[in-house]
């Protein structure tokens, strides 16, 4: 025997002491369905939040400038990076099809081109994905070289874990991969 909808609602009210609306078909303001439906204004875009967008812009620009420098650093000695980092610590890469020096130039290209694109907000998500990949390799390198160094409570001589910077970069690029470059960009916050 099935309970009537009224009985189900009374049972829900006993379990959940706050007001429960069953079957109204309306969503609370601020909750929207995929595709832009819902809320009080159907199809309306989200309001422009200047402080949040300025924060996203400053994060995007600051991170991009620092990552561009990272690429310039590799460009100064690609052979050394290839020998002492790629060949030694990233030996799982398919060197039979792509030489270590080409992997290095791939990382250099990503670290010089993608920060510019990300800073401008053009192809922000693909750029963030490429940079997240290079930071994944950097984290792997640092963990192989120094290990966890007592993370999270260890105090290290260098005052930061070797993998700390690349992990912070990875977190920032993961954010931009998911959220996009923001509305203050040449892409204007459009979906990519």
What keywords describe this structure?
globular; 6 helices; 57% helix; mainly alpha; 192 residues
Task: Outline the structure in words.
The protein is mainly α. It has a domain at 50-179. It contains 6 helices and no strands. The chain is globular, with a radius of gyration of 24 Å. The chain crosses the membrane at residues 102-123, 130-148, 168-186. Keywords: Cell membrane, Membrane, Transmembrane, Transmembrane helix. This is DoxX domain-containing protein. It is a multi-pass membrane protein.
Can you give the mean pLDDT?
Answer: 83
Alpha-carbon distance between the two ends: 52 Å
Task: Report the major sheet.
Answer: none
Order of helices and strands: HHHHHH
Shape: globular
The helix-and-strand class reads mainly alpha
Low-confidence sequence ranges: 30-40
Helix content: 55-70%
How many H/I helices? 6
Subcellular location: Cell membrane
Main location: membrane
Keywords: Cell membrane, Membrane, Transmembrane, Transmembrane helix
Protein name: DoxX domain-containing protein
SSE blueprint and pairings:
Layout (H helix, E strand, L loop, with lengths): L4 H11 L34 H27 L1 H12 L10 H21 L3 H23 L17 H16 L13
Helix pairs in contact: 2-4, 3-4, 4-5, 5-6
Summarize the structure.
With 192 residues, the chain is mainly α. Helices cover 57% and strands 0% of the residues. Helix 2 runs antiparallel to helix 4, helix 4 crosses helix 5 and helix 5 packs antiparallel against helix 6.
């Amino acid at each position: 025997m099935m309970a009537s909808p009224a009985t189900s609602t009374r049972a829900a009210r006993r379990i959940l002491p706050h007001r429960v609306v069953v079957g109204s078909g309306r969503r609370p303001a601020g909750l929207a369905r995929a595709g832009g439906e819902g809320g009080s204004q159907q199809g309306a875009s989200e309001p422009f939040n200047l402080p949040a967008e300025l924060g996203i812009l400053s994060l995007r620009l600051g991170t991009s400038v620092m990552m561009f420098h990272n690429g310039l650093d590799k460009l100064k000695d690609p052979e050394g990076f290839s020998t002492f980092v790629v060949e030694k610590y990233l030996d799982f890469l398919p060197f039979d099809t792509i030489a270590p020096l080409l992997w290095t130039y791939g990382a250099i290209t990503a670290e010089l081109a993608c920060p510019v694109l990300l800073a401008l907000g053009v192809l922000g998500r693909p750029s963030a994905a490429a940079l997240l990949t290079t930071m994944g390799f950097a984290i792997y390198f640092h963990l192989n070289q120094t290990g966890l160094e007592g993370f999270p409570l260890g105090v290290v001589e260098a005052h930061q874990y070797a993998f700390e910077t690349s992990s912070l970069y990875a977190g920032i690029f993961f954010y931009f991969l998911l959220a996009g470059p923001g509305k203050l960009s040449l892409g204007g916050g459009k979906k990519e």
